[in-house]
What does this fold into?
Amino acid sequence: MDVNIENSWKAQLNNEFKKTYFQELAIFVKQEYKQNTCYPKGKDIFSAFDHCPFQETKVVIIGQDPYHGPNQANGLCFSVKDGIPHPPSLVNIFKEIKTDVEKPYPKSGNLECWADQGVLLLNATLTVRAHQAGSHQKKGWEQFTDAVIKTVSSELEGVVFLLWGGFAKKKSSLIDKSKHHILTSGHPSPLSANRGLWFGNQHFSKTNGLLAQMGKEPIDW
It folds into this structure.
């Protein structure tokens, strides 16, 4: 089965695409998109990879599920399309950036500009049925995205992983801590942020500090 994903990732993940679980996942996703409204659009499912070639990956941010409202999801975790109101977690991300790196709150919630600089915005599950959060969980996506994290960990060096909230923190077991950097905090969702677990984590300035130490270009958040 041919997967429409950026070439450098295709080379890294080729064996994964041949596995039985992935072939079954592909059949499930095709049927879901045929029978229901699903997000993101088919062409955007692997958008996080298309904007961030494998060797250029400097930062990995892990989300859980795509947004399930109309026109929100664009294939990058926490990101929405241009012109779409910012969901609460994204609002809190931008608020933290404003205080942390003194960057004005942006008009667009489209994070493709981060991905184009080497930030892999990876949801654990890459598709969802409209208005049904978690509807495509436990169908194989998590196995695939865990393989992505393991591949980044084993084949690259000096990547900064940002793990926000309990779900993302569990992924730290897949990462080689001797060659990568892991920053953890509460999730940017209002539930967590309002309990003091998000604001002030300074992950954006800390990430740029780590990248600078390694002689890598900082991210323009």
Notes: Residues 7-214 form a domain with the Uracil-DNA Glycosylase, subunit E fold (CATH 3.40.470.10). Residues 20-35 form the longest helix (16 residues). The first strand starts at residue 38 and ends at 39. The mean pLDDT is 97.
